[in-house]
Specification:
Layout lengths: L1 H8 L4 H10 L14 H20 L4 E2 L2 E2 L2 H17 L3 H4 L1
Antiparallel strand pairs: 1-2
Helix pairs in contact: 3-4
């Protein structure tokens, strides 16, 4: 059957699935299921955003005219991560 072949290859479209559902008297629904709890996803994203932001600043990041140490960078990342988590969440995704 053509439907089985396209589905097995991962090529089936939503339009095709809707037609099959209608022919079977069914309603098509699809769901995205997170791999991890939402809180972990948000925290991981805040960490990633904080690290990306601080890494862009790293070449010019100075504290009292001196380059930041690894410890100071980790503290800066942790502080930015905390602010991101405490602030408006859309900042994490935009």
């Amino acid at each position: 059957m053509d439907a089985e072949r396209t589905e097995a290859k991962g090529d089936i479209t939503l339009a095709t699935l809707r037609r099959y559902a209608a022919a079977l008297g069914c309603e098509l629904t699809y769901t995205l299921v997170p791999k991890h709890p939402l809180q972990r996803t948000v925290e991981d994203r805040a960490e990633r955003v904080a690290r990306e932001y601080i890494s862009r600043l790293f070449p010019s990041a100075k504290l009292d005219g001196e380059p930041l140490s690894c410890k100071e960078l980790e503290l800066a990342i942790a502080e930015l991560r905390r602010k991101l988590l405490d602030g408006k969440r859309p900042r994490l995704w935009g």
